[in-house]
Design brief:
Bound molecules: zinc ion
Pfam family, one: RING-HC_RBR_RNF216
Number of domains: 5
Protein name: E3 ubiquitin-protein ligase RNF216 RING finger HC subclass domain-containing protein
GO molecular function, one term: zinc ion binding
InterPro entries: LUBAC_E3_Ligases, RING-HC_RBR_RNF216, Znf_RING/FYVE/PHD
Number of helices: 19
Strand order of the largest sheet: 1-2
Structural class: mainly alpha
Pathway: Protein modification; protein ubiquitination
Oligomer: single chain
Helix content: 55-70%
Distance between the termini: 62 Å
Length: about 500
């Protein structure tokens, strides 16, 4: 790749000959990047294999390798490394655009270019995060997404669908959502009516496309055997979304009908907390079976206990909330059914955190979410502390015996006083606190202060010292120093204003 070995192009005229040379190189250098070898071959007039091989040996045996033959997968592999490890704060679209400029050694060439770039790189809002919609898509995916969107939105122009797809990096789900947001506005309605009444009057083709649209909405997807795997995954995600929305609508309708029936029969039951009237299915009972509460009251109680006062964090038993001093509780199965998924998940996390802290004191936590894990970088303090305590107590006793014997032998007042002072000092020494301080310092030195959260939904890097999100070369006092600098600058500006 160095400029020194670039020569005037002498393209190999015969494609078959080029492919044959490439195959030989691929045998000599397994997993090598064919694009890189192809470019190398173009720079030599004769002895291609020998000269390319010599060049690679001159470079210490290094040559760009690929993990897959699929060019889209190669690009996605390079993009993932660039976006998450090498340039975690650079805009993903910018990295994508740069990757497309090269046909081999993408990772190396883009890294070189970005590192040599003088201008500031465009920044990303979410540090070191890359979503599925940011990845490159195959031509099959693009074509299938375009066809499917034309079926989903028969009222939209194909050029508009292409524009929306291009704007959303050819992601089917995001384009689907954007086209739905655009909706059948006045212009779309006019166009649809125009098409319906003038181009295909009475043929029913529009209605057939609508039927196809509704069939895809309700999950009866057309032939999917030839679909791109990524596209099939997106279609499945969309189908699940529609099913969830349908389920919620049906559930709300059923609840309304049930409540109307109870009201008509005058059989509503009163909640013991908010004193509202509810149908039997909308109530929960304590384990004593005497108190009834609506789902909203229990949800509010648990939310307050978890996120407000925190009294329910890690509580294995949630007691009855009746004011009558009931000894009952709410069962776990019932809470799981009633609570929303995020509240239930937060409660489960609090239980897990409590039990792991009880089992092992060496726990590291993510400052951005509730994730925590056992710190295995150093032996637990309890073991070390008990051993060191025995050693130090034995050393103390030994030293006291030696000093006492010396004092007895010399029969002097000064060693006796020294012994007394020494014993007093040793009794005052808080061995446990000092051991914990030392343990903390050693643990920090071994583990480092930056913690990478393994929770997929969070995946933040946080500082264990200042509990802030860490970006690049983190300095805990950076913000404080900025605040101090701003304070001094403001004070100086005020002083100048007063003197003018
Ligand atoms: Zn209530
Ligand atoms: Zn009760
Ligand atoms: Zn986290
Ligand atoms: Zn910090």
């Amino acid at each position: 790749m160095k400029k020194s070995w670039k020569r005037p192009k002498s393209a190999i005229a015969d494609d078959n000959h080029c492919e044959s040379l490439l195959q030989q190189l691929m045998v000599i250098f397994p997993n090598g990047d064919p694009g890189y070898f192809r470019e190398c071959l173009q720079y030599y007039e004769s002895d291609h294999i020998t000269r390319v091989t010599d060049k690679i040996f001159e470079m210490g045996g290094y040559y760009p390798m690929v993990t897959t033959c699929d060019p889209v997968k190669q690009l996605n592999h390079a993009l993932r490394i660039l976006a998450t490890d090498l340039f975690p704060d650079c805009e993903v679209a910018y990295l994508r655009q740069r990757l497309l400029q090269y046909n081999h050694s993408h990772l190396e060439q883009v890294s070189d270019e970005l590192l040599n770039e003088q201008a500031r790189l465009p920044e990303r809002l979410e540090y070191a995060k890359i979503s599925r919609s940011d990845m490159f898509r195959s031509e099959t995916y693009k074509s299938q997404a375009q066809t499917q969107l034309a079926i989903d939105y028969p009222q939209a122009w194909k050029s508009s669908i292409r524009a929306v797809l291009a704007e959303n990096n050819w992601d089917y789900l995001n384009s689907y959502d954007q086209l739905r947001e655009i909706g059948p506005g006045g212009l779309w309605i006019a166009l649809r009516n125009f098409v319906k009444h003038w181009i295909i009057p009475g043929t029913g083709s529009s209605s057939s496309s609508n039927a196809a649209s509704s069939s895809s909405h309700h999950g009866a997807a057309p032939q999917t055997s030839s679909f791109d795997p990524d596209f099939m995954e997106d279609m499945e995600a969309l189908r699940r979304r529609h099913l969830c929305a349908q389920e919620m609508t049906d559930s709300e309708l059923a609840r309304q009908i049930n409540e109307d029936e109870y009201t008509k029969e005058n059989q509503l039951i009163t909640c013991n907390c908010c004193y509202g009237d509810f149908a039997f299915e909308q109530l929960a009972f304590c384990s004593e079976g005497e108190h009834t509460f609506c789902h909203d009251c229990i949800t509010h109680y648990i939310s307050e206990g978890l996120f407000g006062q925190g009294s329910l964090r890690g509580a294995a038993r949630i007691g009855c909330i009746s004011v009558e001093g009931c000894q009952g509780s709410f069962s776990t199965e019932m809470l799981e059914r009633i609570l929303t998924s995020d509240i239930w998940s937060a409660y489960q996390h609090s239980l897990f955190e409590e039990s792991i802290v009880r089992a092992c004191r060496s726990v590291v936590r993510c400052a951005a979410c509730s994730y925590c894990e056992v710190d295995e970088s150093i032996r637990p303090l309890d073991d070390t502390k008990s051993r060191l305590s025995y050693v130090l107590t034995a050393a103390q006793l030994l030293l006291m015996v030696v000093v006492a014997v010396m004092c007895f032998l010399q029969n002097s007042i000064i060693p006796m006083l020294t012994t007394l002072v020494y014993c007093y000092t040793f009794a005052q020494w808080d061995l446990q606190a000092d051991l914990e301080i030392v343990y903390g310092r050693i643990a920090r030195a071994r583990r480092g202060s930056i913690f990478r959260c393994q929770n997929q939904a969070c995946a933040e890097m946080t500082c264990l010292q200042c509990n802030r999100v860490a970006r690049g070369l983190h300095n805990c006092l950076e913000r404080d120093q900025d605040g101090l600098r701003l304070y001094v600058e403001k004070a100086m500006a005020d002083a100048v204003t007063r003197t003018v």
